[in-house]
Amino acid sequence: MSSNHTTLVSSKITSKNQVTIPKTIRELLDIGSNDTINWQINPNGTVVLAKSKPDLWQVVADQEKQFGNLSTPEIEWGPDLESDEFD
């Protein structure tokens, strides 16, 4: 976050229980469309909003969408020449 002071911004809850995150907050948290945010509700009722960091598997899924699947088919090596039985 680039701000060193407290910022107070208000939002209104719509009839569908939706809230628009104000531009000031989006800029301070560097968040935008398709970003995920975390809500932390403290025992005293305060709420902390923070940009979440994607987990490894979300990064992999996003890269797979962008670059395609990197999996390769298993190689067929032909029939085994040795017996599965051991001495």
Structure description:
The mean pLDDT is 84. This protein has two helices and two strands. The chain starts with 22 loop residues before the first helix and ends in a 20-residue tail after the last helix. The longest helix is centred in the C-terminal third of the chain and has 12 residues, at 56-67. 22% of the residues lie in helices and 11% in strands. The radius of gyration is 25 Å and the shape is elongated. Strands 1-2 form a two-stranded antiparallel sheet. The protein is an alpha+beta fold.
Describe the structure concisely:
The chain has helices at residues 23-29, 56-67; strands at 37-41, 47-51. The chain is of the alpha+beta class.
Notable characteristics:
2 strands; 11% strand; elongated
Topology:
Layout: H1 23-29, E1 37-41, E2 47-51, H2 56-67
Antiparallel strand pairs: 1-2
Strand content: 5-15%
Overall shape: it is: elongated
Strand order of the largest sheet: 1-2
Could you tell me how far the N terminus lies from the C terminus, measured between alpha carbons in angstroms? 67 Å
pLDDT < 50 stretches: none
| Chain-averaged pLDDT | 84
Total count of strands = 2
Structural class: alpha+beta
Query: Roughly what percent helix?
Result: 10-25%
What string, H for helix and E for strand, traces the elements in order?
A: HEEH
From the alpha-carbon coordinates, what is the Rg to the nearest angstrom?
25 Å
Total number of helical segments? Answer: 2
| Major sheet | 2 strands, antiparallel
